[in-house]
Design goal:
Layout: H1 7-16, E1 29-30, H2 33-43, E2 50-54, H3 60-68, E3 71-76, H4 82-88, E4 95-99, H5 107-115, E5 120-125, H6 131-140, E6 145-153, H7 154-161, H8 171-179, E7 180-188, E8 193-194, E9 201-208, H9 219-231, H10 237-242, H11 251-260, H12 274-285
Length: 286
């Protein structure tokens, strides 16, 4: 069997196992060797690296990762794919497949067990509906990370990279940029997948800061403020924060915070940068 980046081989193995593509798992298998090479390059994978792959599918990208990395752990939620992975990865002795929902997995414990707590690289081809929870759980659980390289819907990649004032800008942009520096490594058209998705995808690389450039008194408060300001985009920042049930501040307190920071009182959340949100959060937490 040749590489799975060749569509013929992908179709062959899916047929051999009578595999039915699951909509609920958002399964789209990559069939383009150039894109696979781009992902491995964007993640800058070497034999020194331990890679956690989320959603290996039939092992298309996993084969490439095994060639380049020291060790790969692949977490696949769909148990029907496990026998296929056994076959497609049978040439590699540096891979472990775990049949589990990655959101229920204790990833810090996994890193401890397989990589002595040394930072890892995460690579994934993620379905749309689970992109944000997975990215945020990696950062919020303080998984030791060198970088995260993921294939996601183009629109979400644009959102992650967006800055204040643009229509893509929102809570996700701020949350990711608080932890990491994003850059889009490649745009990937729908014809690079089986089945073809309706929209374009992109490979985005997130490199976490080794030392955070931000000083935050209360992280939870910061994220609640960010959620509150984008919860109802058309509202002013003051009304957004005031109406958000997890935030106990009066309008006077919120206005005092804005005034002390020289922020106009009728401003909307989408006009503020991360530093300004942090300044408001630090003011309110005192």
């Amino acid at each position: 069997m040749g590489t799975l980046g060749n569509p013929k081989n992908t179709i062959e193995i899916l047929n051999k196992y009578d595999f039915i593509i699951q909509k609920k798992f958002g399964q789209n298998f990559l069939i383009d060797n150039h894109v696979l090479e781009k992902i491995v390059r964007a993640a800058d994978i070497t034999k020194e690296d331990f890679v956690l792959e989320i959603g290996p599918g039939i092992g298309t990208l996993t084969q490439y990762l095994c060639e380049s990395a020291g060790k790969v752990v692949a977490v696949e939620i769909d148990k029907k794919l496990i026998p296929i992975l056994k076959e497609t990865l049978s040439n590699y002795d540096n891979v472990t497949v775990i049949n589990e929902d990655v959101l229920k997995l204790d990833i810090p414990a996994l890193v401890k067990e397989h990589n002595n707590d040394r930072p890892i690289k995460v690579v994934a081809n993620l379905p749309y509906y689970i992109t944000t929870p997975i990215i945020m759980s990696l950062f919020e659980n303080h998984v030791p990370l060198l970088n995260v390289t993921i294939m996601i819907q183009k629109e979400v990649a644009d959102r992650i990279q967006a800055g204040p004032g643009s229509k893509e800008y929102g809570a996700l942009s701020l949350a990711v940029q608080y932890y990491a520096k994003p850059y889009i490594a490649a745009n990937v058209p729908p014809n690079c997948f089986i089945p073809r998705p309706k929209v374009g995808s992109a490979v985005i690389n997130l490199t976490p800061y080794t030392e955070s450039p931000y000083h935050v008194e209360d992280e939870k408060l910061l994220f609640n403020l960010i959620r509150a300001s984008f919860n109802q985009r058309r509202k002013t920042l003051v009304n957004g924060i005031f109406n958000y049930e997890d935030l106990p501040y009066s309008k006077e307190e919120i206005l005092a915070a804005l005034e002390s920071l020289d922020i106009p009182k009728y401003i909307r959340g989408e006009a503020l940068g991360l530093e300004e949100f942090i300044a408001i959060a630090n003011y309110l937490s005192n």
